[in-house]
Amino acid sequence: DVKVTQSSRYLVKRTGEKVFLECVQDMDHENMFWYRQDPGLGLRLIYFSYDVKMKEKGDIPEGYSVSREKKERFSLILESASTNQTSMYLCASARDTSGNTIYFGEGSWLTVV
Amino acid sequence: DAKTTQPNSMESNEEEPVHLPCNHSTISGTDYIHWYRQLPSQGPEYVIHGLTSNVNNRMASLAIAEDRKSSTLILHRATLRDAAVYYCTHGTGGYQKVTFGIGTKLQVIP
How many Å apart are CA B41 and CA A65, to the nearest integer? Predict the structure, then answer.
C-alpha cells in the first residue's frame, strides 16, 4: 500500500528554535509537497519538489526552507520558529500531478510557544 | 496558478444524493480534475479523478462539464461517514504545481 510518513504527529517548540519536519514516501514518486492548513484558509502550498535537489516556492514560502537530498525524503525547515507558524503541516507526494493521485501523510501538528 | 472555486459549506440529509460543485476556469487541456476529501484530524485522501468523460467508482461519481471549466462530485447516498471537507483541484504550470482551495465542508444530517 502507498505510504507517506511524517516523522512527528505532534510537536511543541519554542520561539526562535530551528524545527525540522521530516517526510518519507515509499512510492518512488518524483513530486513531493509541503502544505500548511489553518482554519478557514484551507491547504496552502509552502514548497514543492519535482526531483532530488530541486525545489520550487509555493504560495507561502516565507519563513520556510526545504531539503530534498534523496528521492524518498522531503524535509521542511523552520529556521527560526515563530508563533504564527503554529499550524498543521501536511506532506504529500505524486508520481506526476496531471493524471496521477496525490498521496498525503497524516499531518504534523506544530505548536510554537 | 490553478484556481478552483467551491462553496464553503453544504448540508445533506443522510441517504440522499449530494452534488458538490467546483469551478476551475483556468484548467488547461491536459489537466486532470481530482477530488479529495479530508476527514477530521486526517490528511486528505483521494476520491476520484477524470479528464473529459464522466467517471464512476465505488466512492462517488464525477460529472465534468463539456467545456471542462466546472465539475460536480456526486455522492449517491450520503452517509454520516461522508461528513468531511471536499477539495477539487487540477495540476497546472510547467512543474505541475498543485494548489488546493478552502474546499467544501459537507455536513450530513441524520
Answer: 25
